[in-house]
Design brief:
- The chain is globular, with a radius of gyration of 19 Å.
- A hairpin with a 7-residue loop joins β1 and β2.
- α3 packs parallel to α6.
- It folds into two domains: 39 residues, no CATH class; 160 residues, Up-down Bundle (de novo design (two linked rop proteins)), CATH 1.20.1440.120.
- The chain is 45% helix and 11% strand.
- By secondary structure, it is mainly alpha-helical.
- The structure holds zinc ion (ZN).
- Zinc ion (ZN) binds next to loops.
Length: 209
């Protein structure tokens, strides 16, 4: 908890990357003895960018129990917040983070073969099923299930490959990002016992804008 009069305050702005020295406190909480802000871009001022940062922070916190770090979550969180600060469209950075986080948690969606029969998916729109764990071929998709366009499936595959350089160069229309984001968030929410509050906030914000 930040106190405004604290000397350490300026180093602890929201979503900044800091190096901290903690002293063992009397109870469950540690005492912050020193804090230094590490170099990097800043995330501030824009509601949408801040909301995406909140999703990243909430998910990182959710998957790591107190004092039991999960391998890779720290690195991924730092990279994602940095990318979020640089990216002109915060949703792009957020989508990249969600895919890497799903992969890290062992919930990466099946994108190239049918999640049910494992046959190669043809290059056409396909239904996505979080329960099945990925896209489904025509035979396995429920009748009338909404189809995700091929362009969105291709973007998801690129993100899953981890090729951030190519991903950064892609031009992505908002409607395409809607589809990409929808797949990632439904997959994530299927595997979380509770919804992420920050993700709900993001959905609500969109619905009202
Ligand atoms: Zn199938």
């Amino acid at each position: 908890m930040r106190r405004p009069e604290s000397k350490l305050g300026p180093s602890l702005e929201l979503y900044g990357h800091v190096d901290v020295l903690l002293a063992k406190g009397r109870g469950e909480l540690d005492v912050l003895a020193q804090a230094q802000r590490l170099p990097g871009a800043r995330i501030a001022g824009e509601v949408e960018r801040m909301s995406h940062a909140a999703v990243i922070a909430e998910l990182a916190e959710r998957v790591c129990e107190d004092r039991h770090p999960v391998d890779g979550v720290y690195e991924l969180t730092v990279t994602a917040l940095d990318e979020l600060a640089r990216e002109t469209d915060p949703r792009r950075a957020s989508a990249y983070f969600l895919m890497q986080a799903l992969d890290l948690l062992g919930y990466a969606p099946q994108l190239s073969v049918c999640a049910s029969c494992e046959q190669q998916l043809p290059a056409k729109p396909a239904a996505f099923s979080p329960a099945a764990g990925g896209f489904l071929c025509d035979r396995d998709a429920p009748v009338g299930a909404p189809l995700v366009p091929v362009a969105a499936i291709k973007v998801l595959r690129l993100i899953a490959s981890g090729d951030l350089q190519t991903y950064r160069r892609l031009k992505l229309e908002p409607a395409l990002m809607d589809d990409v984001e929808h797949v990632l968030t439904t997959q994530l929410e299927h595997h979380l016992d509770r919804r992420l509050k920050s993700l709900q906030f993001l959905h609500d914000m969109r619905a009202h804008s």
